[in-house]
Amino acid sequence: VIAFGLYKLIENMYFLGRTKLKGKAQIVKKSRLYTIPYKSNHKLAFIWYILFCSVFIFFYSQDRSFTVALKRHKFPSSVPHNKYVPLLNRDPILIPIKSSYENLSSIRIHLDYKEDAITTKNGKKNPATLVFRLYDAGTNKLISESSRNAYLIDGTPRFPFGLSPIPDSKGKEYIAELTLKNGDKNDYVLVNTTPTSIISSYNILKDKSGNNVPGLIANKIYFTFTDLNLLFALGFGAVVAIGILRSAR
Questions:
Q1: What local confidence, expressed as pLDDT, does residue 156 receive?
Q2: How buried is residue 33: exposed, middle or buried, by Cβ count under 10 Å (0-12/13-18/19+)?
């Protein structure tokens, strides 16, 4: 969809530029030969933009189940708000999580792996280990702990750290901890610290009356359309669609 829209934009702009160099008569002639009539281009641009938006909205909607509520969280001020912070030769990164719903079931964090996963897997006997822990912020009690080889996050930008659902999580505060063990300059994790990096998800079951369904739908729509990457993509698509229209005039 994206490639087709860009192709039509470049094609139309190319032929329009050629016709302008050869005078009015040639403009009319070339337009008839190489460009689609303006009304047809208007429909083409509209259809292309709708398809473009649909693909990106589907991609950025994350969990597409309307029984899952989502919430974003920010890194504390003690963590540098550069786009990526190396999780290497430093203290664990601590992230406050304030739960908004019951049944907290996972925390996803935007991570990136420094090297190629296959190279590390095949060439290193003791690869770095990424450790995730979740504590109760009030009692400092360990609620969940998991570990995996750091290279396993490669290819999964927003890596999910699954939890056993916490039924009474609504309104409670937690601390998520990320630690890297046995890392080196060729085997470590980068943590994205932008405001859209951390997402908590909650398994919200439909009640018998269905009263919570509108809230779940609203949460899904709000979460999707406040993603900065999605907004940028939709804006870019609009620019291409407008370019298609202008090149056909």
A1: 81
A2: exposed
